[in-house]
Amino acid sequence: MSKQEKRLAREAMEKGKKKMEKVVPSHIGIIMDGNGRWAVRRNLPRIAGHKEGLKAVRRAVKSADRYGIRYLTLYSFSTENWKRPKEEVRFLFSLMEQRLRVEGENLHKNNVRVGFIGKRDVLPASLISTMKDIEKMTGKNTGLTLIFAINYGSRQEITDAVRKIVRSKAAEKDVNEKLIEKNLYTGGVPDPDLIIRTSGEKRLSNFLLWQAAYSELYFTPVLWPDFTEEEFLKAIRYYQKRKRKFGGIHSPSSLLGGEE
Ligand code: IPE
Ligand code: IPE
Ligand code: MG
Fold first, then answer.
1. Which string of DSSP letters, residue by residue, matches 16-27?
2. Could you tell me if residue 64 is inside a domain?
3. Whose CA is nearest to atom 1 of ligand 1?
4. I want to staple 48 with a disulfide (CB 3.0 to 4.6 A). Which of 44, 58, 229, 255 is the partner?
5. Does ligand 2 lie within 6 Å of residue 152's CB atom?
6. Alpha helices of the chain — where are they, by DSSP H?
7. With contact defined as beta carbons under 8 Å apart, do 255 and 240 qualify?
8. Which residue owns the Cα nearest ligand 2 atom 14?
């Protein structure tokens, strides 16, 4: 491709992105479930499913970027996942660390800003420092904001927020939704418009409970390692057909691609 052709292609892509922006969810949260079952069905150890799941993570990040999603939050390890065998937990953390180290530069080059929600202090020290490094490196990027929920649980998050508020000695009259929101791990991030859960389970498993008050929910039987760009698009199309009312009777966003 000549330089001019490349420029034209880039411009066309930017235009395409902009056009989608009006109708795509601004923030998508994904409960990436089904790695274990994917492996068991193939007579493989569960960790093979987690490895394969990482490929789906890369695909999802690429798709989110391509369709102009502003925020993507990936549920990677819940506060309840500590109940799993020690070896699996250890494997998951080392896999995360390794991939973050390898993919960090690449994400940075693609203008992705990486962040984390969840309680860090109990994670392995080397993982914590990898998380810090990547946050620092990508902190000023202006593209997709990619948030990994690691050792995340909504109840813990809300409890922590209450604790912070009590510690700040806020007056009773000043305690309102805004103040609580500000003190959640997600402070400053808009609520998810769409939450996707793979693997057929229809529950939130302690994911973004406060923030999901008005999220559209999309459940698919596809196991996480099998989640392709096409599946991602299916979820977006489902979202585009919803009428969002937020308790009212009409909202302008329902005019965008919604069926009357
Ligand atoms: C999701 O897959 C990944 C994590 C929770 C870390 P699972 O490991 O929960 O897969 P299933 O539900 O056992 O199939
Ligand atoms: C939810 O999946 C947590 C993550 C995807 C990280 P789980 O597999 O832990 O959820 P349950 O136990 O089926 O509710
Ligand atoms: Mg599961």
1. HHHHHHTTS-SE
2. yes
3. 33
4. 44
5. no
6. 3-21, 35-40, 46-66, 86-109, 125-138, 154-167, 177-182, 229-241
7. no
8. 205
Distance 30 CA to ligand 2 centre (A): 11
Residues 6 or more apart whose Cβ sits within 8 Å of residue 14:
none
Take atom 3 of ligand 1 and give the residue whose Cα is closest.
33
Ligand 2 centroid from CA 33, angstroms: 6
The tens digit of pLDDT for each residue in 120-174 reads 999 999 999 999 999 999 999 999 999 999 999 999 999 999 999 999 999 999 9
Query: Is 255 inside any structural domain?
Result: no
Query: Which residues form the catalytic set?
Result: 33, 81
Tens of pLDDT, residue by residue over 188-226, are 999 999 999 999 999 999 999 999 999 999 999 999 999
Q: Which ligand is nearest to the CA of 91?
A: 1
Integer CA distances (angstroms), 175 to 89, 168, 181, 248, in order: 37, 11, 11, 25
What Å distances lie between residue 121 and 93, 97, 118, CA to CA? 13, 15, 9
Dihedral sign computed on CA atoms, order 68, 96, 120, 207: positive
Query: Is residue 9 included in any domain, yes or no?
Result: no
What's residue 259's pLDDT?
42
* Count: domains in the chain: 1
Q: What is the mean pLDDT of the chain?
A: 93
Q: Which of 28-32, 72-76, 150-154, 240-244 has the lowest mean pLDDT?
A: 240-244
Gap between the Cα atoms of 155 and 17, Å rounded: 36
Q: Is residue 5 part of a domain?
A: no
Give the Å distance between the CA of 87 and the centre of ligand 3. Answer: 16
CB count, 10 Å around CB of 66? Answer: 16
CATH number at residue 216: 3.40.1180.10
Cβ–ligand 1 contact at 32 (below 6 Å) = yes
